[in-house]
Amino acid sequence: KGLLFEKMVDEKLYTDPSLNLKKLAELLAIPYYRLSQVINQQLGKNFTEFINEYRIYEAKRMLANPEYAYEKIEGIAYDAGFNNPTSFYAAFKKFAHSTPTHYRKEALRNKGIVAK
User: Which of 103, 9, 93, 98 is nearest to 51 (CA)?
Assistant: First the structure.
């Protein structure tokens, strides 16, 4: 588990929109069925949920950053590793319990910045 989290964070593997279970297993040099087992049994989620949590964390970080205040939300979605805005919006709502637009406005407002 340690290597998995380390690689995900340090190398931001989740930002690769083509990342799948097999590709991640190859990058970690472990059998894909073992990686699947770790994610499913030890973490209690499926691969998509696992990857999307990282992607949403990255998107939230960017949305709350004043440097990205005028970046299009779709651009942030792609930068975080999503293939399309629709899956981004659905995942964001699931994990953040908010829309990206609302999250950005609140996060920036708390920093004294008015976002458009």
Answer: 9
